[in-house]
Amino acid sequence: MARVTTAGGLAVCGALGGVLAAALVAPIVAGAGVASNTAAGTITKLPPPPREDPLPEVTRLVDRNGRQFAQFYSQNRQSVTIDQVSKPMREAIVAIEDARFYEHAGLDVRGTIRALIANTQAGGIRQGGSSLTQQLVKNILVNRAESEKERDSAQVRSIRRKFTEMRYALALEEKYSKDQILERYLNIAYFGAGAFGVQAAARRFFGVSAKDLTLGQAAALAGAVRTPYSTDPARGEAQREKLQQRRDLVLDRMAELGEITPAEAAAAKSQALGLNMRAEPGGCAESEYPYFCVYVQHEILANPAFGHSRADRERRLQRGGLTLKTTLDPVAQKAADKAIEARVAAEDTEVAAEAMVEPGTGAIRALAASKRYGSNPGGKVIGPNTTFNLAADTAHGGGMGFQAGSTFKIFTLATALAKGWKFGQGFDTPGVFVPSEGFTDCAGKPVNDPSAKIYNASGEGKGGPYSLELGTWKSSNIFFMMLEREVGLCDVIRTAKALGIQRADGGKLSEVPTFTLGVNEMDPLTVAAAVATFGARGKYCKPIAITEIVERDGRRVEIPPACSATIDPAVADAVNDVLSGVFTQGTMKGQSIGRPAAGKTGTNNNYTSAWFAGYTPNLAAAVSVGDIRGSYKYPLNGVRIGDQTYGSVQGASLPGPIWVDSMQGALRDTPATEFTPPDMGRFGGGFTPGLREAMEAERGRRGDVEYEYWYEDENGNLYPEDDYYRGDPRDDYYRGNARADGEGRRRRD
């Protein structure tokens, strides 16, 4: 039979086929309880083609370099055009499923009549006869079904459904060319082993693209379509043998039709199946970077931009065929994973988590935790795995977080500098502080607590004179409580909120006097994004994980950073200068990443949790450590974490080293960037009564010569330079910020 190639010819052939089919089967159909005139009208009066909903396709998550690290799907499918499918694959599917595909107009009249007669006489469906176009119709109806009832109706084995398929098939043939129909069929068909469409099947079965399928591979896939479950090679050896039998059947049929020679068929049949089964994991549990994946997943499900309802957003994630370009940096991520794994075991009840953020963009570069992501064996709550995204807040799959401790002193420091405080300025502090007056929340309500007694934590100093810098370096609780009262509790809270600070559980911040001591439970990502603001000289950027959305049709939507200037750049420079001293003079002294860095330790009361938050102009990170069973019930005292025992875990003893190692690894290929020096005309010249005498007495008690040089201010007061000026690696003695070497200095007498 000559092939019909024109639309007009197809229409004539379709109408003729319909009339012939109706005329031939009318008596039989009538006997089966279907009026013959109805049957004829049903076929010859064509409906519009069936509505084609977009096929479910895989949504891919790729890192900043474009490499995929996770995917979501309800059906593992990636649609391709007909020219992206190998010629043997196109020929094989037509040969075995519908040899007269290019000759009929939607109905294989001979096959359909034969099947109808056999089925009617049997009183039900006993024999196939569907053309490839009819099979496409069936798959379209199943794909668009929104309920089990609709799905069952589209698949029920009945004569009435066959008539519906026939009508729609004729309508489709009027709408599309043969190659367009074949393309749609190859993309919608199920091949087994969870692979929908020829591209997914080629990758799943053989690890190749559809365009590279060989004759033997194509014959195997074509043979699988008819019985995808009984030929599923992932199910076992029996199914593989059935698949090989089906492959050989397809090869014989292709030789019979003249598509290949008998010798080619024999050569292909003599070869093994050559399966190279490739796993296609879906969801975050099987992702290389599960915590980042979980963050992106929650970001999509909570964002109305991806759909009106959560169900709509879930459907788009699982079926939309999106490519989501993320901010994940595999170098930073691996560095964070490695640093945590080296010190905290997955089996420990103590957990470490880290988030890394790029200053100036808010790009999340890494999210890491000490436990593996997933459920524990036997459904246990505590074990080596967790389903909590420990580096993020509850809105992004995280837990309740841990109290942030002394990292919050950064916000009080920034508030003080913004209000005119100067380097060297401070006051004498008592050995115990009672917040009995002077504290008002942002609603104007006094929140004093006369019953509370604040002490400096062990190892962080006693009472006495503290300057702004010294109080920060030594992390003096009492100094910062007094400083918070001086500059205003509400103003400190406003500073923190401007830098994105909110509780991990999404609740209202506790506006209490101990706010500066970090009594609010936080997650590492929120803290990292906050301190990144200072690395960006006062520009706060909301954490962002997705930078571009690519639709299945190639349309691209870029997502820009959401940033705002929240801190005066000069104030940020001053904060950076003070916090740089934490590494040279303070609680992190002796630990360095080999480049300019600033940060703050956080050790909570009774060692319930420990933190370190730090940054460079290029990258910021925050590390938290606490017990997953509950930080108050299980403080970090006398604990063994990893292969080390700790009398108590402080910010500098575990979170600090994790931060150092991870930052070194993350920045290994990034040139070092200096902080902008502070404006000494604005921030220099402060004075702390009694500090000189205290430092002199301390020097005398130690019996050493600690201070080679002293700084003389404009009033003639002398201050030991080590406690005021830092940061110039070119001179071990001079640590000036904006002064020429030697200016304003004199050797100790």
From TrEMBL:
Protein biosynthesis listed as a keyword = no
Task: Extract the GO molecular function terms from the UniProt entry.
Answer: penicillin binding; peptidoglycan glycosyltransferase activity; serine-type D-Ala-D-Ala carboxypeptidase activity
Q: Tell me the GO BP annotations in alphabetical order.
A: cell wall organization; peptidoglycan biosynthetic process; proteolysis; regulation of cell shape
List compositional bias (Basic and acidic residues) regions by residue number. Answer: 723-749
Cellular component per GO, a single term: outer membrane-bounded periplasmic space
- The Penicillin-binding protein transpeptidase domain is annotated at 356-618
Q: Which residues form the Glycosyl transferase family domain?
A: 66-254
InterPro entries linked to this entry:
Beta-lactam/transpept-like (IPR012338), Glyco_trans_51 (IPR001264), Glycosyltr_51/Transpeptidase (IPR050396), Lysozyme-like_dom_sf (IPR023346), PBP_transglycosylase (IPR036950), PCN-bd_Tpept (IPR001460)
* The reaction(s) this protein catalyses: [GlcNAc-(1->4)-Mur2Ac(oyl-L-Ala-gamma-D-Glu-L-Lys-D-Ala-D-Ala)](n)-di-trans,octa-cis-undecaprenyl diphosphate + beta-D-GlcNAc-(1->4)-Mur2Ac(oyl-L-Ala-gamma-D-Glu-L-Lys-D-Ala-D-Ala)-di-trans,octa-cis-undecaprenyl diphosphate = [GlcNAc-(1->4)-Mur2Ac(oyl-L-Ala-gamma-D-Glu-L-Lys-D-Ala-D-Ala)](n+1)-di-trans,octa-cis-undecaprenyl diphosphate + di-trans,octa-cis-undecaprenyl diphosphate + H(+); Preferential cleavage: (Ac)2-L-Lys-D-Ala-|-D-Ala. Also transpeptidation of peptidyl-alanyl moieties that are N-acyl substituents of D-alanine
Q: Which is one Pfam family of this protein?
A: Transgly
Q: Which UniProt keywords apply?
A: Carboxypeptidase, Cell shape, Cell wall biogenesis/degradation, Glycosyltransferase, Hydrolase, Multifunctional enzyme, Peptidoglycan synthesis, Protease, Transferase
* Organism domain of life: Bacteria
Which PANTHER family is this protein grouped with?
Answer: BINDING PROTEIN TRANSPEPTIDASE, PUTATIVE-RELATED, PEPTIDOGLYCAN GLYCOSYLTRANSFERASE
Q: So what family is this one in? A: In the C-terminal section; belongs to the transpeptidase family. In the N-terminal section; belongs to the glycosyltransferase 51 family.
Q: What is this protein called?
A: Penicillin-binding protein
